[in-house]
Specification:
Low-confidence stretches: none
Distance between the termini: 30 Å
Largest sheet: 6 strands, mixed, barrel
Shape: elongated
Radius of gyration: 32 Å
Helix content: 40-55%
């Protein structure tokens, strides 16, 4: 062991009476522990919420979506379908047609998104069929069935078996200038689903693909099975979404390819920003503790001026003196971060097991605050704490290394 390490460890393990310097050092250590634990706990809660949001969205959204880059419909949907299904990473693929329409039931009307799907294909890429809480999923042989969300059903005061009208936007401009009646289709509510997503439950309804093609066909055109907005695909591994996206962009240069992340990019970016802000704000606790470290070590430079002079007179180098103080700052950061990480882990595990912090189930879809701890977060938070504490020791280390031994021991 070098003399720098020996002196630094001896100072930290000193059992002398408590002085103002040692009290400040203890406060600094506690600050690092609290700051590190707070970072782990808050980031783990963010991870928990993000995991729930991602799971809900990914369950209903495709992993990959291919739509027309320009124009409303794919120019050759069968080719796109074949290209997507040909990739070994793709588990299943299906076509869809969607658009906005007005839904009317009794005296209530609402603008919603009508999505035409292939029931069997949708079952392989989405959990929609498993989310049915009343009635049944779409019957492929019944083009007059519709599946609506629970919130939408409440707003329309509709139940399974009720008939509702859907007003198509196709030809709506003509009805404003001519005596033309907008296309109105009547559907029977075959099922009601609950996705735990307010946007889906309140503003999305699903019908068979041929029914949607007839609904959205313009008055001057015939209904064609080629009327398809895009192709949705489910991958075996969601982590390969970007790789598959790159492949499809080369295979289908005239179409737009989006991943599950791209479909809700604004939401995920907002959560990422919140996560970064939480890192920065909570890191300030560690920074404040680092200022205490800087103050306590600077005071030891003044208090131990004679001892530093003696060490230098005995042959200690400037770099050796610097190492003593840098090592002290590093050790405070090391011990503080380890204890803080253990504390944060303990609180997280306790919340997962005992769910101390409850949530109102009438507002939230989960009964307690979610926690998801990642090894990468522990590594990053621990490194942040150690780096900040090591930097705090830099100034007193430089100051101690520049002490003149002759001046320091002159009056001894």
């Amino acid at each position: 062991m070098s003399y720098s390490s020996f002196v630094a460890l001896r100072y930290l393990k000193s059992k002398r009476r408590m002085t103002s310097v040692s009290i400040i050092s203890l406060i600094s250590l506690l600050g690092v522990i609290v700051g590190t634990a707070a970072l782990i706990i808050v980031i783990s809660v963010f991870n928990g919420f993000q995991g729930i949001v991602t799971r809900i969205l990914v369950d209903f959204d495709p992993t990959i979506r291919v739509t027309a880059e320009s124009g409303q419909y794919l120019s050759n949907p069968q080719k796109v379908m074949a290209e997507v299904a040909s990739l070994r990473e793709v588990r299943s693929a299906t076509m869809f047609l969607g658009g906005k329409a007005m839904i009317v039931s009794g005296g209530v009307n609402r603008a919603i998104n009508i999505v035409g799907i292939v029931p069997k294909g949708n079952e392989r890429i989405s959990s929609l069929s498993k989310a049915i809480v009343l009635g049944k999923f779409l019957n492929p042989d019944n083009d007059h069935q519709i599946v609506i969300g629970l919130s939408l059903a409440d707003a329309l005061d509709a139940v399974v078996g009720d008939s509702i009208a859907v007003i198509s936007p196709a030809g709506i401009e003509r009805s404003l200038t001519q005596f033309y009646q907008p296309k109105v289709e009547h559907f029977v509510v075959g099922g009601i689903y609950q996705s735990n997503n307010k946007d889906y439950d309140g503003y999305y309804a699903f019908v068979n693909l041929p029914a949607a093609q007839y609904l959205f066909a313009s008055p001057d055109s015939t209904v064609s099975p080629e009327m398809v907005n895009g192709v949705d695909a489910k991958l075996y591994d969601i982590g390969k979404s970007n790789d598959v996206k790159s492949k499809l962009e080369k295979m289908l240069p005239g179409d737009r390819v989006e991943t599950w992340y791209d479909l809700h990019k604004d939401l995920y970016q907002m959560m990422t920003i919140e996560r970064i802000v939480a890192y920065i704000v909570l890191s300030l606790i560690v920074v404040i503790a680092a200022f205490n470290i800087l103050g306590s070590l600077t005071m030891t430079v003044i208090e131990k001026r004679r001892e530093i002079g003696v060490l230098k007179a005995m042959g200690a180098t400037q770099s050796g003196i610097m190492k003593i103080y840098l090592l002290e700052g590093f050790l405070v950061g090391l011990f503080g971060s380890i204890l803080g990480l253990l504390l944060g882990y303990g609180v997280g595990e306790a919340q997962i097991k005992f769910q101390f912090f409850k949530l109102d189930t009438s507002v939230y879809i989960i009964p307690a605050l979610p926690v998801s701890m990642h090894v990468s977060d522990f590594i990053v938070v621990g490194l942040i704490a150690m780096v900040i504490c090591s930097l705090a020791a830099l100034y007193p280390a430089k100051r101690a290394s520049k002490i003149d031994p002759a001046e320091a021991v002159r009056w001894e």
